[in-house]
Amino acid sequence: MELTPLTGICLGSLGIVFLVLVYAFIRGSRGLRAYIVMRTLLTIPMVFILVTIIFFVMRIIPGDPVTSQLGPRGGPEARERMTRELGLDRPILVQYVDYITDVARLDLGNALVFGQRPVADELSERLPATLELIVPSLLFAVGFGVLAGTFAADHRKQGVDYGLRLFSITAYSIPVFWLGLMLQVIFSLVLGWLPVAGRIDTIIGTTLQRHTNILVLDALITGNWPALWSALKHLILPTLSLGLILTGVFLRLSRINVIETLVEDFVLAARARGIRDSVVVYRHALFNALIPIVTLIGLQFSVLLAGAVLTETTFSWPGMGLYLVDRIGQRDYTAVQGVITIFALSVAIVSLLTDIVYAFLDPRVRY
Could you tell me which residues come within 8 angstroms of residue 72 by beta carbon, excluding any fewer than 6 positions away? Predict the structure, then answer.
């Protein structure tokens, strides 16, 4: 198996999962160990079923790579030759077995269009851009949502509480692509403050030495401050578009859990001892209300990836989401399967880690 950047990321992620599993297995009780084993075993068929579905769905929907490449003018001989070259003339079950075997070896195969490059190489170029988008979006959604929800709980049944609750409902209801377009119109076309698309200014981007292809990180490593400023400016609008959609969920959950915690005996005792209200709310109550929020992060990760597809398309962000949309239009079976496989593995790993951390923090989930 050739070690590509994408393969290295996958193996590194699996290594982190393995270390977490070992730590929880050693430090946990017998019930926790049984839960970890069962939850880990359930992850394997979940990924297998998902990649199987996408394999057959791609071959059921109208269109194929040959028609996409040759168009209506392609003759029968040219179509037959390209079909044979791409391996699409083999029985569907043979293709499926080969695909599952390759996935088990972390080999995503070659793209069927545009030079037939290895899919792992193409995704290695796109994955850093997606990570650069979803990580700050998730941090913004969690940070702003939790703090705003805690503030609303501390001022419940007041005007600011009603305003934040209305904001949370509105934010979660707005389509991410529409929000992105509105932000582009306001901050790019009308005010001219921020760029409308892309990751970095073209001229400045040529001066940046790329080590990880995460532009903000590369600019910090090399000390290229103009490139850092340009990358941050390009990152603001996509991050706001994707992060604001998830903010509403974290805001409402944080508000509910903090309100429930504020009536607990230990909170009443802390207030009776004269501890400042801000310390009671933002330290004692908030920390004890974070356990359900940890679970929500894992559940919203799949929503984050789905939103990243629309966000990258809206802002021409050259990540895996834009790559997926482009290859679906080309009916590139292998490339689409590769992206979905990476997404499925990412969601499975995050969900597994979330459930184990939750079980480690709250023993009740094991029963």
Answer: none
CA dihedral 241, 244, 245, 247 (to 10 degrees): 160
* Greatest alpha-carbon span in the chain: 87
Residue-wise pLDDT tens digits, 191-229: 888 888 888 888 887 888 887 778 888 888 888 888 889
Taken in order of first residue, the domains within the chain and their CATH numbers are 1-113+330-367 (no CATH), 125-329 (1.10.3720)
Per residue in 91-148, pLDDT (tens digit) is 778 888 888 887 777 777 777 776 677 888 888 888 888 888 888 898 898 888 888 8
Within 10 angstroms of residue 114's Cβ, the number of other Cβ atoms is 13
